[in-house]
Each structure stands twice: as structure tokens, then as C-alpha cells.
Write a structure and sequence with these properties.
elongated; alpha/beta; 6-stranded parallel β-sheet
Length: 416
């Protein structure tokens, strides 16, 4: 009989969370019966082709928003007793009306309403929650002993470990630390943040970065002469955390420091788009800069094939102090044999080898960034050498297939 797994996610389908999609497909290939549970329906007009190919919407339980009117909530709960004809469901649902034991969530009928939908995963063998808030959500029901025998794995991805919220998480994530079986983080940086929230975690914590499909992100470069133009590429959302304005500042300063023809391609969309456009106009560099917007992975690969250097100028977010936990685009670029130059923030350092596959530069140090970037611009052979090393590093350490096997080992540790 097939093993059953439930994925608890914040939103599905989510165009930006291909790592979750890849894990779901992995489990399908391994013969698991997969159920996806989400409280937020994604944009169905923008979905990955795999969502359709694997009929994932049919495998998804969409939990509608809890009605604001408590009478409506009670009505939904009553109707569920007619629809779900199960003595086990009646017993467990009625237990949730113990207002003295379960407090606020019981009084508001919040837990009773969500249980209508969560009851459908009562027989799974394992639950994998992605992001801290999903882990908090499902572990609330573990605390109520509704899924007491089902192991829960929680993956943290960075947005759920913002440094300025660590004290808040100590309270919010209490049920996660009390009732989960296993934690997964991207690298030592996110592991450090997790232990800042709870220094006495007794469950295993596995470091498992998001992997790269090295057969998809593979190089196909044309030989360039020493005097050919050099295309620098930036890929990331146009938000403060990703530092697109720093990328433009660096590029505008370097244009007059070399005789090599240069161009900058910026892939991404976001709230800083207008500021980016105004900066380009102010500096008079529009003929050297191409703004591509948000595009598919297929299209990104095409741009990478024409690029020579990848830059990542992410910073510590001025509002939240959040820093990049992994920066998957940095690994994808290296898989395409692109040397990378990055600000040394958060967990970025764990995704490249300084002076071998790229360069790490002190955050916001534009002068040093330009220095190492010029070294690459002016030396075609160095770019090739670092690019080859970059590809080798990613294949050995971020190969999606290898990391998938690690994930399966974690699953089967808890499934007999």
C-alpha cells in the first residue's frame, strides 16, 4: 500500500516556490499518495506546467478563509456533520468545543472550522509543513492531539526567520518546537537563527539547501574573443532586500573604468521598479541596461546563456533586518558556468566558494565590488576558469537529485 504524505503550504500554486513543487513531484515519483493543504489559493492564471501535468489541483485541499461572522462559522460546522458521516469525526470535532481546555481558538470556532478540512488528512503517514507559519498552523492541531501519531517535519526558508522578529517567534513557534519531529533549514545561517529562537531544540535539525536541476541549468556557451562585450546579469525581485539600486550604482561607476563594452541585464519585478527606471534615466545609462521583468525559468536560462558574470547585491533589509538565507539564483547562475560576485550577507557565503567560483564582498562596499568585478571583466580566461569551478561546485553540493535523496532519507526515518 502506498505511503501517504500531506504538504502544508502557505499558498498553492505559488509560481515562486518551485522548490515545494519539486518535492511534491518527487514524492509522486516515489509512489506516495500526495495531498496538498493550503489556506491561500494562488493565481491559477500563472501556474507551472507541472501543476497541470500531475493534476496537482485535484490533490489540493483549499481551506477557505474563516467566515468573519461566528454564526456562519457555526453553520458550516453543523453542515459538516451531515456531509462527513464519520463517528470519529463527530467525536474529535465535538472535543474542540471544550472552551475551558482550548481557550480562545475554541471560543471563536477557529479550530472547529479548519478541522472540517484537516480531517481529510487524518490517515497520512507523514506531514511536511513548509514555512514557519504553516508549521505553527498544523502543530496547533498536534497540540490538541488530533494528529498525535503523525510525524511533522517543518522546513524554514528565511522569510519565516526574520532577525527582527526572533523574540516574537519564541511565542508564535512554541507549538512547533513542542510537537514537530524534525526541522529542515537551508544552511548554517538559518540554523543559527532557528537556535536563536530556541536554544534547546531537542529534535534533529537537518541542513538541506534548495537544490538546482543541473540538467536544466546547464551551460551552452559560445567561445568569446578577448575583446568581446561582457554581459553582466542580475536576477531577483526589485525590492530593498535584493539591492537592485546597488547593482545599478556599481554598474554605472564601472562603465568608464574599462575599454571592454559592457551591458547589464536585470531580471525581476517589484516595488522598486519605478526607482530603478528613474535611476537609469538619471545616470544616462539606458542604452547599456535592459529591464526584462518577471519571466519563466525557461526564459531565464536563455539570458544566462548569453551572460558572462552574475552579480548579487542583496543587503540587510533596512526595515526588517532580514538577509538572504540562500539565494538560489546564485547557485543557478553558477550551474550555468557563470562566475558570481556577491555581497556577503546572511547565508550567501554558503552558496559559493570565495575566489574559486566567485567573490564575496563586504556588504555595500561598492569600491571593492567594482575592483573584483573589473578583474573578471578584463580577464576572459579567469571568467572561464571560475565558471568551470562554479559548475563543478554546484553539481557536487547543490545537485537537486542528491538533495532529494537526502529528503527521502528523512521521510523514511519516520515511516515504517
Amino acid at each position: 500500500m502506498n505511503k501517504k504524505i500531506a504538504f502544508i503550504v502557505n499558498e498553492f500554486p505559488a509560481i515562486s516556490e518551485t522548490f515545494v513543487l519539486n518535492q511534491i513531484i518527487l514524492c509522486i515519483h516515489e509512489g506516495f499518495d500526495v495531498t496538498i493543504v493550503t489556506r491561500s489559493k494562488g493565481d491559477l492564471n500563472r501556474i507551472q506546467f507541472q501543476v497541470k501535468d500531475y493534476s496537482l489541483l485535484e490533490k489540493t485541499i483549499f481551506i477557505p478563509p474563516v467566515p468573519k461572522n461566528i454564526i456562519q462559522r457555526f453553520g458550516f460546522i453543523l453542515k459538516s456533520y451531515y456531509r462527513i458521516k464519520s463517528f470519529d469525526y463527530y467525536c474529535n470535532s465535538l472535543k474542540l468545543f471544550n472552551f475551558v481546555k482550548f481557550g480562545y481558538h475554541s471560543l471563536t470556532l477557529y479550530i472547529q472550522y479548519n478541522f472540517i478540512y484537516l480531517y481529510m488528512i487524518k490517515d497520512v503517514d507523514i506531514i511536511h509543513a513548509h514555512f514557519g507559519h504553516s508549521g505553527k498552523f498544523i502543530n496547533l492541531y498536534k497540540r490538541l492531539r488530533l494528529f498525535k501519531d503523525i510525524p511533522v517535519i517543518v522546513s524554514f526558508h528565511g522569510v519565516d526567520l526574520s532577525p527582527n522578529n526572533l523574540n516574537i517567534y519564541k511565542k508564535q513557534y512554541k507549538s512547533i518546537f513542542n510537537h514537530s519531529s524534525h526541522f529542515i533549514v537551508n544552511n548554517s545561517y538559518s540554523q543559527f537563527l532557528l537556535r536563536q529562537i530556541n536554544s534547546s531544540i531537542h529534535q534533529p535539525v537537518s541542513i538541506l539547501p534548495v537544490g538546482v536541476d543541473v540538467s536544466f541549468f546547464r551551460p551552452n556557451k559560445k567561445n568569446k574573443s578577448e575583446n568581446s562585450s561582457v554581459n553582466i546579469i542580475f536576477c531577483g525581485r526589485l525590492i530593498s532586500l535584493k539591492g537592485p539600486i546597488y547593482a545599478l550604482q556599481i554598474f554605472s561607476k564601472i562603465l568608464n573604468k574599462t575599454n571592454v563594452p559592457l551591458s547589464l541585464t536585470i531580471i525581476g519585478a517589484g516595488s522598486l521598479l519605478q526607482e530603478v527606471e528613474e535611476f537609469i534615466k538619471y545616470k544616462g545609462i539606458s542604452k547599456f541596461v535592459t529591464l526584462v521583468g518577471s519571466i519563466s525559468h525557461d526564459e531565464i536560462v536563455k539570458y544566462y546563456k548569453e551572460a558572462d558574470i552574475f552579480i548579487y547585491t542583496g543587503i540587510s533589509d533596512p526595515l526588517t533586518s532580514r538577509q538572504e538565507v540562500q539565494g538560489l539564483v546564485i547557485q543557478e547562475a553558477q550551474s550555468m558556468e557563470l562566475p558570481v560576485v556577491c555581497f556577503d550577507v546572511g547565508g550567501v557565503k554558503y552558496g559559493l566558494i570565495h575566489q574559486l567560483t566567485g567573490f564575496l564582498v563586504e556588504e555595500k562596499n561598492i569600491g571593492k565590488f567594482n575592483e573584483v568585478l573589473l578583474k573578471l571583466i578584463n580577464n576572459n580566461e579567469l571568467r572561464k576558469e571560475m565558471g568551470k569551478s562554479a559548475r563543478k561546485f554546484i553539481v557536487e553540493n547543490f545537485n537537486q537529485s542528491k538533495l532529494n535523496n537526502e529528503l527521502l532519507r528523512i521521510y523514511f526515518k519516520y515511516i515504517s
